[in-house]
Structure formats: C-alpha cells, structure tokens
# Entry
Amino acid sequence: MPHQNSSVAVATDFPALTTRYPLADGRIIRRHYLDSAASTLTMGCAKQVADELLRHYANTHSELHFSARIVSHAYAWAHQQVLKFVHADPVQHTAFFAGTGCTAPLNRLARSLAAQRPERNIVLASLMEHHANDLPHRKHAGTVVQIPLIGPAPALGAVNLMALERLLEQHQGRVNYLAISAASNVTGIINPVHTIAALAHRHGAWIVVDASQYLAHAPLSISDTGAPERELDALAFSGHKLYAPGSPGVAVVRRTLLASQEPDEVGGGMVDDVSRTGYQVTARFPDREEAGTPNILGAVQLGAVLNVLQRVGMAQIHAAEQVRLRQLLAGLATVPGVRIYGDSDPDRTPRLGTVAFNLDGLEQGLVAAVLNDYFNVAVRNGCFCAHPYVRELLKPELWAMEIDPDAVDAALQLKAWQGMVRASLGLYSTAEDVAALLTGLRDLQSRPDFYRAHYAADTAGNCHHRTFTAPAELLFDPEAALDRALERLSAPFAVL
# Structure
C-alpha cells in the first residue's frame, strides 16, 4: 500500500504544472491552471506507463508474438481498471472504449437504446446536461423532455426529484431512459444519481449517467448500496478529464443492454467469422463493442491513472478538494460584485470543484482575458457546451436587460453577455492557485477602466489586448520542436 502522503506526491506529479508564460506586464511566471473541467493535465506516472509500453508496441488481438501478447494483456488490464474503479461486476457489466471523450459512447448508447424499445420514444434529460449528454438523445432517441432543477435562477440546485416523478407518471410507459449528469460541468452541482436510478427503474426506464465531471473528484459506484434497483444501467466518462489527455471515451454498461442486438459499429476485431455473404458477430465483451484498432496507449494510460487514484483513495481526494472548494467559494464571496451561479452552499447542495461566476458590469470575455494576460490564471469562459443551463442560470440578469433567453434568436441578442467565467479544480490545484485567481479578480474590480482601455472585443465577445500579443506559434511551435528532436539523430533522413 502507498504511504499516507501518497496523495501529496501524486498531486505534484504533473509536468505541466511548471509551465511558464510571459505576461502583459513583462513578468514571466508559472501558470495557475483552473480549467480542469475542460481537460485535466497529464499525470506523469501514468504517462510513463504508456511510454514504457511503446517499447513493446504492436496491435492487439494476437498472442503469437511477444509484443502483441504484451499489448493485448495491457489493454485488457485497462478495461479491468475501469470496472474496478466504479465497482462494476465484470460478469454483469462490460467496459468499452470509444472516440476521444464521452460523446462517442453516449451517441452509441442513444442509438442502441432507442433501437431496443422504439415504442418508448421519450428520454428525460436534466436541464444541466452538457451537449454530449443532450444532443445524442435529441438526434437518435425521439423526444427529449427536460427535467427541472430545484430552486430559482441563478441559485439552481440539483434535479428536482418531485418534478421528475411527475414526468415519469405523465409519460408512463413511454420513457425509455433518463440521461443525467452525475455533476454539472458548469456549477459542479451533484445529482443523486442512484436515487434517480431507483425512481427510473420503478417506472420501467433505464438510466444513462454522464460521469465525466465526477469521477476525477469523488468516488462513484455503479450501485451505492448494492441494491439492483439503485444500479446505474450505463455510465460514460472522458479520460481527458481524468488526468489522461489523449485517452478514449469510456462506457460501463450492463451486458444485457448490449447483447440482444448487433453492435452499433462493425469492422475488424468484433467478429468471429466473415464470409462472402455474411458475418458472425462475436459474443465476447468488450471485443464486440470495439471495432477496429483501438487507442491502446491512451486506454492503458487511463487505466494507470485509475489504478493510481484507487491506491490514493477517492474519498481522500474528494475530502481534500472540498477544502479547496470552500476556500474558493469563501474567497469569491469577498470580491465585490461577484455573482456565483448555482446554489453556492455546499452543505445544502453538494458540489464538486467547479464554480461559474461573473463580475458585475464586466463581460465574461474581458474577465477571462485579464486573468490570463496579467495573472497567468487559466480559466474558461462562455457557455461551456451547456447553453440551456447557462441561459437558465442567467435569466434574471437577461430579463433585466430586456433579453428573452428563451427566444429563437436568443444567441444573437445575448452576444458578449451570454456566458460566465468558470474556475475548476483538479488534484493538483493549490491554495496559491486560488489566491492568484482572487488577486486578479480584486484588481480587475478595483481598476476596471484601466483594463477596459487595454482591450477590444471581437464580434464573438472575445477580448484581445491592444498591444500585448503572445501568439501560440511563439509559445510552442510543433515544427521547431520536431527540429530539436531531429537534431538528436546523426542522419535523420538516411535510407536504410
């Protein structure tokens, strides 16, 4: 077992934490990365596992030469780590990799589940869903009905269970499944997914959970009590939000939901035989769900991350993040003019380390640009691929501006005001990162005219410094990096 301080050691094992950038005031300092809800940084020890595997690299689905045997074993190990991480029974459940995030597995699940019960053509999705757990169901699964949230905007909470039950009763026998985020990518607010699962199952519906914003921050099991009625039918997540950039999307699914029909994607590796007139789909999981050559290295790197997080203990990681989250919320509350979105009381409404906010009178694009250019604080701004949720949170402000957020042309009306600033924590986030954010916000709020004079906004609402530029190609040029790599070779273009 690891040392009790292993979480501290792992939290510093992210090479990108030392990255430095030049700022508008001439300083060169390390960045404060508060954009983990979009993508996390790479865990060094997990990347090392993938790099070592490259020495043995070959394709999977063979046991007859050393490298293929090694890689096939490592790829199977990655699947095992996924199932162990969410405490899924490998006899009852399968894990498969798809795409580059949870979008691909969620699209596949939407198509598959819709085909199984076409008479049930309604999906209930929460108002807080990311587009990845919204649009696939709109396109493939029939009619999507949104589940309201608790409370009024902007202090919305989790899914309203009473409203959900009314919707299930109203559409009795027609609801195929529920699409629910375990936690919002905008506010970090947590949904009680196991309680929702029991409610769905009582009405003959399944539940599909997007756990992309949850699994890096807190423990989540397929069933919280072991009771079948509280079991999640399908769970999807993104490895790039779990300290493994470049890894695939993942789905954990009850096998019975997949075994009764042909896999959504076909190709090499998912068949037992192909003749001139037909083909025989294999019964083996997860092979039947993973047509083609998989993202082996990404999957193994993700498996290594999940293994590390299990060794440290997700409960310990969650507890440490909650301390940092409360520091962030308390600090933001001291900045004049800050508006936090979603219920900001973590005791009343549990949330993870993601906080969306705005500053009175200052466009979200300007706030994000100033934080980056003058304080090297990386935050995200906009609607975070959750337009309906963000507009609902903003409703009181938009109404005050005589803007109807529900209008067909709402996007044209909202312009620069459509959105928020989002700070999101990771395993590596420190009190220093939070302090840097708060320092930037206080300075911006105390000198708004100074900063406004230095920026011009484009038609998309993005603000650009009038004199300071830091083009991407000057900060990192892939061809220059390649040139440096080739310098190590004595005759890089020699033909053998």
